[in-house]
Amino acid sequence: MSQRLATGGRLIDRSQPRSFTFNGKTLQGYAGDTLASALLGADQMLVGRSFKYHRPRGVVASGAEEPNALMNMGEGELFEPNQRATTTELFEGLIARSQNHWPSLDYDIGALNQLAAPFFSAGFYYKTFIHPRAAWKHLFEPFIRKSAGLGQAPKGADGDIYEHYYAHVDVLVIGGGIAGLRAAHAAASAGARVLVIEQSATWGGRAPVDDDFASEINALVAELAAMDDVQMRLRLMGAGVYDHGFVTGYERLRDHAPKPGAPRHRLWKIRAQQVVSCTGAIERPLSFAGNDRPGVMLASAMRDYVVNHAVAPGQRTVLVTNNDDGYRTVLCLLDHGLEVPLVIDARRNPEGTLAAKARARGVTIRDGYAAAGVRGTKRVTGIEICPIEGSGGAVDTVECDAVAMSGGWSPVVHFYSHCGGKLLWDEAGAFFYPDAAKPPLNQSGAGFVRCGGAANGALQGAEAAQCGGQAGAEAARALGLTAPVPSGPAPEPQAEAPLMPVWVMPLNADYHRRSHTWLDFQNDVKLSDVQLAAREGYESVEHTKRYTTLGMATDQGKLSNINGLAVLSDALDASIPQVGTTTFRPPYTPISLGSIAGEARGDTFQPLRRTPMHDWHEANGVHWEPVGHWRRPYAYPRSGETVEQAVHREVKNTREALGLLDASTLGKILVTGPDAGKFLDMLYTNMMSSLKPGRCRYGLMCNENGFLMDDGVVARLDENSFLVHTTSGGAEHIHAHMEDWLQCEWWDWQVHTVNLTEEYAQIAVVGPHARKLLEKLGGMDFSAENLPFMGWAEGQIGGFDTRVFRISFSGELSFEVAVPAAQGAAFWDRLVKEGADLGLMPYGTEALHILRAEKGFIMIGDETDGTVIPQDLGLHWAISKKKTDYLGKRAQERPHMTDPARWKLVGLETISGAVLPDGAYATAPGYNANDQRNTQGRVTSTYYSPTLERGIAMGLVLNGPDRMGEVLNFPGTNGQIYRARIVDPVFYDKEGAKQNV
Amino acid sequence: MSNPMTMTNSPLGGQSFKGLAQITEAPLTGMITLRGDLSAGWMADAVKQATGALIPQQRMITSGTGASAAWMSPDELLLLVDYKAAEGITKGLNTATAGQFCTAANVSNARVLIDIKGQGARSVLGKLTPADLRPESLAPMEMRRSRIAQVPAAFWLAGEDHFRLIAFRSVAQYAFDILKSAAHPAAAV
């Protein structure tokens, strides 16, 4: 059994007990515990069920590499699945539930999958669910989706908040172990500004467990903390290294002390000139049958729990090792009064110092032996042994309640690899380490990441510390600073005997054992799966990974990668470096989606653009329509009215009395300079340079491929300046389009552009009573003589500073009045008040659309879709014949553009008066090569016209303008065929009498 | 042109929030975009006349008499003046530079100006902008055109622990809201 020791525990505070619940059961630990250590301290060895076979699983590691102890954490809006117990700090009231079992952790139906294990081999899904085809969508996929995944998906929105933080440093040190602290010290001493980050809650890494560095760590931490140019952060994990020295860091602010309202995680976005990765190394499991049983643990994790938390994973522990380091666990357990009945060492005659010490203390060492199997189901009860060369026939069984396994160490090279650094294979230690000659390169082509300490392959404590210091000094030198070789105790020579690479244990394990030997605990990938993949022809490690899912779980194969590719290379009879590793990708461990979103959620998910009258709309029952980031009133439904009814009322009222439209979102770009006219002549299809000051002109803008991209009214302000109105959606990109041409092509033209879109609130006063309302406010002459159609004037209306444009997008008498945005709300209020007795009603964008459609005015984005040219829309009148050039002119002369068979704009009137479905196609006789109906046109805009009391539409139709009166068929998606007659697109007031009064 | 001040509303109605820093909307401020050859003598004269300030060096802000001039791009300045006087100054600039390739436009209403004050000012802004705010990288009165979260912003260090930030008017509430959450009292960096 696992238990809490009576004394000790470097990190726990026994005076501060913490109670928590696990699967509803209340347990107790101490401040300083992780959830994993607290569970082990409470003899909770079984912590979850495995992914595929639902095998009972226990804690196997003590840090970020843990594959098994994943928990459903918290409740309600704070619930989160797949939280790693080994990196979750215990707090009072923590609620954890184990995952992937039903009905309970102890009795799980899914465990029956184990009996079917022979059928769940590599590629199982590909092989099994391929036939019949139709079954995939309706039967297999839903079932697999239901069974897949470890934790439950949260049901509601996340109740926590998150944020970002941008940091800029000279040297970023990732990892606050002894190597990282030495690196930070060396770099800071040379004058660099340093940020050192550590994923756990304490400094020092594993040095305090394995070596005697405690006093040096304390001194370094104190010294660094006192330095002005050093920032030190705990609970901040390096997440990813990217181009240009960009590094992300994941700070867990409140996971250890939840506090509603305060940010839970903070994503650091760090620009570092140099990165020093002192991220240590991760111990590898050994591959023997039953290595996934609860109670089988990494040897290093075992001593972490004993030293850090005073938790003994077992009373009687057997060590299985292929190296000397595992003996540290033996000595540690003995020092803490625990039994080690046996060491199983794959090597013959291990003669290292550590092994000798263990032997001297009376520990039995079976050298040249292997673990042949593990007894026990929900916890270890014993271990079977056999000769290392054997196939697994056990020669002996030893009772024990825990097994420590030590398969050697793998440096954490992730941060060297994320951005392209290359690795080398160390034969003696059987690990990949950074190739110093091929580091990740920065924007100048120079290396910007280096590794220090165990991450660089310097696995021994003193050697690692020294290596860290050197890496820090080198980083400082790379910045052009002078950094002496760091002082510090010289590493004492270590008398460790060489490791014996053992990838299958025993070496000739039979099939039964190989199919019960786990490589990837989290994704349930067995040794036999990888061997099968190799037999089936998978040679690339990347393909094998995807075929078997090895290393594809949330731990990204931290424990399984090297073991898996070693098995693969063995099966392929290739060397390990030949097979290579899979790609290390950020983030180092999963980070919360909330931290990535940061402030971008809820009300600030996206910037909401508000016009100056936004609050009025909101207070007056607006039904919003998103237009880009703007919110525009779609309609203003009154009580008892549907949105549709409101729209119809607004249309009629505008036609019959007086409407008010917030047109502030309209793009307004000031174009000035001696060449402004020439510039606009190039931008628009028609002539703008001939426009007189005081007048307005409608124009079309095409891109260089000839396609219509924007339209609007240009007002000439004076000889050298024009105010260009764009569509609401076009304001920014038309401004950018202008600057693009001015800066890249016509750089010698004297033209300035200034985007004034937000400077003005723009209000359209529309309808037969429009003039009356403005005259009521007074201040200017609004007569047709003084301010004719397509004219503009500046002056004060009712004391407001205005510019009035007599333009109409509705076919009614219309004045668009621009006022400084700060006066917009007051001016609108005033118009609403004074217009009350004239029947004024505000109208929204839908009424605007109907009003323009009744008049046959095109709308960018409806009648145009990026493939339509003005000629298609019958807008020849707006295309200058006189101009030698304009953007799009040449493109519009290409054969495809002049093809008479291009679909052309017409009006469409249903025979029944019904509204045509938007986007519907008109069918033509016959079928095309794909067995689809031939088509001869499509609907571009369609509305119910309250004015005409019938459906009206516009569409593009083959030879449309020549086919007036013909009836086309438009099949709807509802099975109904709509019959519509081709008519003139102007449905209302063809002469334009109403707007021109 | 006389501005009926009673009819004017600042974008945020003077909203304010105190957390890690004090976030306050500044009163309406006159802002004029001035484009043209910044090295020309006539430009220096016009700017001097309008603000009393010298042409600023690249990215810097110069102060004049109750007004200042900020460098925005190689051919663009932003003049910060009294709100009520902005329209008149704009007209004066266009008159003074007549015949030159030069444009002055009043943009006072297109912007919001927000003050971020207090010891936490730098870290509050640092949560939202990728710009390097370290003292050695951002001098006092240096105009930084960057972004805060998803919107463009320009800001400068106007005094000890005091940033001034300009954003577009339509996103004033968004800018204020994200600054407010960044200044949450329990969110110190």
Automatic annotation (TrEMBL), chain A:
Matching Gene3D superfamilies: 2Fe-2S iron-sulphur cluster binding domain, sarcosine oxidase, alpha subunit, N-terminal domain (3.10.20.440), FAD/NAD(P)-binding domain (3.50.50.60), Probable tRNA modification gtpase trme, domain 1 (3.30.1360.120)
Domain GCVT N-terminal: 613-883
Domain spans labelled SoxA A3: 516-598
Domain FAD-dependent oxidoreductase 2 FAD-binding: 170-205
One Pfam family hit: Fer2_4
Keyword set, alphabetical order: Flavoprotein, Oxidoreductase
Domain of life of the source: Bacteria
Keyword S-adenosyl-L-methionine: no
Residue ranges occupied by any Aminomethyltransferase C-terminal domain in the UniProt entry: 904-989
A single MF term (Gene Ontology): sarcosine oxidase activity
One GO BP annotation of this record: tetrahydrofolate metabolic process
Annotated family: Belongs to the GcvT family.
Protein name: Sarcosine oxidase subunit alpha family protein
Organism field: Harenicola maris
Lineage: Bacteria, Pseudomonadati, Pseudomonadota, Alphaproteobacteria, Rhodobacterales
TrEMBL record, chain B:
InterPro entries attached to this UniProt entry: SoxG, TrmE/GcvT-like
Record SUPFAM superfamilies: Folate-binding domain
Coiled coil: none
Family matches, as Pfam families: SoxG (PF04268)
Protein name: Sarcosine oxidase subunit gamma
Organism: Harenicola maris
Highest classification ranks of the organism: Bacteria, Pseudomonadati, Pseudomonadota, Alphaproteobacteria, Rhodobacterales
